[in-house]
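does this look right to u?? zinc ion version
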Amino acid sequence: MKPTSGYFIVSLDFELFWGVFDVKKLNDYKKNLQNVRVVIPRLLKLADAYNIKLSFATIGLLFVKNKEELLEAIPAIKPTYSNQNFNPYRLIEEIGTNEADDPYHYANSLIKQIQENGKHEIACHTFSHYYVNEDGQTTQQFEEDLKAAIAIAKKNNVELKSIVFPRNQINESCLNVCKKYGLTNFRGTEKHWMFNTHDTKKLGSPAHKGFRLLDSYINLSGYNTYNLSSIKNLSGMVNIPSSKFFRPYSKSLKFLEPRRISRIKKGMTLAAKNNEIYHIWWHPHNFGDNIDANFNNLEQLFKHYSSLNNDYNFNNDTMAGLAEIIKKV
Ligand SMILES: [Zn+2]
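got this back:
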């Protein structure tokens, strides 16, 4: 079957503090994390208005309702990272007892809101923001983490089908594990060297970061759109690669915002005209500051999607939905 339309895919890495504990101090980032409680309902409303389905790649730890449940849900075998800064379990003693007293580490009520909406996908972002390419951890430890994620999701009536790997670190042995547990697809990275997530030290270096920032405004890496029939299965998992990280609104670079949005729109148009995929992603907490400006930007993209839907039959689905379609192409 030849693809007859392109697809606009939107994934969100939903993680609260579990996604940034190794790079940020909680006190410095509370506003962004607290505002996720404003951002998620607003996102659901906007997505409804434009008939867009979202995939929320959610950290397993966010599903638990309280510390007691958390202690039951965590895997017995934990990652033995050489750099203990990556180990989230060291935070457990400090966190609060439930969502009401610690909105930075618990999010069951937000997950329920997404579920009740009924249109979106709740996907996997591992149980503990697991880094599969960091030194010291093993594939077996990843497997235990994934099992914990699947179990807590199942307890909440969610069947995990798609995975977004934390920091986009991916490797084939972990993809094999995902396949073994019934997951069907993952979000790969753009092909350009500046997105090579295997060498984690390089990825975080100022030069690489600088190139990725520039690439948001100037076309350095191309548009990273993908033909459905060229999408590769890796270890039996469908790769739905990223086209662009949707950076948060920048006050200091606000004069460049139109350029950034226009670059994304061009990529979407290219995908729509050529029956390709355009996959955009970010974190709900990225919208936790300058909320209105971020939503204005997003609405521009959603409006553009609507017009491409009219003109070129450009479509939209969740990651899991698209994986099913790709299998038939
Ligand atoms: Zn993450």
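The domain at 7-328 is CATH 3.20.20.370 (TIM Barrel). idk if thats expected tbh
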